[in-house]
Amino acid sequence: MDKPQVGDRLHSNQRPAVVTGTLTHDERLRDVLAAMYGAGPDAQGQHDKAVEDLRRDRREMMVAIIAAYGRCPAGDYPARQALVYVASVMRDVGALPFLASVALMEVPQEASSDPDSFSTVAEETIIRMSALDGISYHASHGDKEATEILLRCVESRAFSVRRAAVTGLLATEQGKKLRPRLEALLPKEQHFVFDLKQTHVKEAIQVKDPRRHLVEGYQEFGESKPKARVTRSGRTPKTKKK
Amino acid sequence: MATCSVPDIADKNVTGDNLYGPIICDQTFVDWAWPAYKFNSDYWKNGFGFDDVCNTDLPAARTLSALWLLNYSAEDYMNEDWGNSCLHWGCRYVRDQVGDLRAMCGDGSAIARTTGGHIELYLGCFYSKDVAGRAETLMHESRHQGGKPHDANFPSWSGFPVGKSGADSTWGYEGAWMYGALYLWWFYAEGTRTTTALRQAARVRAQYVIDNAFATHPGYVI
Predict the structure, then answer these.
(1) What is the rounded CA–CA span in Å between residue A121 and residue B216?
(2) Which end of chain A, C or N, has fewer beta carbons within 10 A?
(3) What percent of chain A has pLDDT over 90?
(4) Whole-angstrom Cα distance, residue A177 to residue A174?
(5) Of all helices (H) and strands (E), which one includes residue A59?
């Protein structure tokens, strides 16, 4: 007799994700994304070259980015964030209107039934924070329009957007001068944002001794891990597992 | 038993699945990782990828990718010393904590749950998170497995449900949010065998957790 099914059942019902379409620069945008998220011994070089490539034909690439962003389903958070990241690292003021539109867009209401586990508000906010990174870069280089956008972001309903905007503004040349205005814009109980410190992870408080937090009676797995294999072979392993 | 379908799959370049997928497609790694992380095979059949572990459209490959990232992102990845950074020992911690790893449908958006000695991963974990985000989930859930529940309500400024339970009181509480955020933070700062873009995504996600998941803000800007 067949063993009864124990777990759930998952049906394949795959549709390709729509990140880019058929505009002239879509293919280049696809290549840029692939290069930026590519690995290998020269991942950083590949990333930087992709950024250089983006900066050629900036206007056309921005059109492709905006069009791709518009085509993304709302729930395709990784792709939306990637496109915002691409626009941010272009370091081009021509990207500011797009980045501003993303950062200033109201975060939609929570759509998850269990936001402790998965929060659409978190995913939407993270995309806006990525846009803030790009805007803050321009503000820190003296761009007035970028500074104005950050000031508007301080009034966002999303705390992380407000916090990132304040951080970005305080890092500008006018940071000190702007502080009273920022204090007036933020509720008193959030004035702790002025005391936050840019920190390297090495300076952050670490876990004191992770062994204290292991389940009682845990057993270390006996075999040490195999050496990293980083080259592509395309070999399909046999699927029998223990 | 529930039945569900693979949702729309995000661009696998941007989630890192095109990077990690070919690497985990390796019998030696699969044969080691499967028992090391106590995959309960019964829960990875019926479409979840047990018989197709190289297929990055399916949960098994997507989970193995997260485990590869956990195991090999430190430059000196064979050093899993507890006294080192969690980029080194995170993989060991998850390995020692997980008693039984299961893939399940969930409600479509749910990520994961630790219950009755096992960790359940849901569609939300496989399809709405990038590879580093899945690794963070494994760290977070493993901390719960270690007997540390959330001990506070989300603060007034949080993007999570304000006033509801599920937050950690402080960074020093060393709870599940701290474990997940700290891992992402190290991955951003010193992760190797990955991409700049994925590390940047990890940075923003870690910052979101720092900003919103603690009753007292930890005071850090990454």
Answers:
(1) 20
(2) N
(3) 58
(4) 5
(5) helix A58-71
**Contacts B163 to A, Cβ<8 Å:** none
CA angle A26, A27, A28 (to 5 degrees): 90
Q: Is pLDDT above 60 for B120?
A: yes
Residues of B in contact with A34 (CB under 8 A): 13, 18
Residue B109 has pLDDT above 80, yes or no: no
d(CA A65, CA A80): 10
Using CB atoms, pick whichever of B19, B158, B161 lies closest to residue A38: B19
pLDDT on residue A208: 92
Q: What ipTM, to 2 d.p.?
A: 0.92
Question: Model pTM?
Answer: 0.92
Report the residue from A14, A19, A229 with minimal CB separation from B29. A229
> Cα(B69)–Cα(B199) distance, rounded to whole angstroms?
12
Average pLDDT score, chain B: 94
Record: contact B174-A213, CB cut-off 8 A = yes
What's phi and psi for A30, nearest 5 deg? -60, -45
Q: How far apart are CA B216 and CA B92, in angstroms?
A: 29
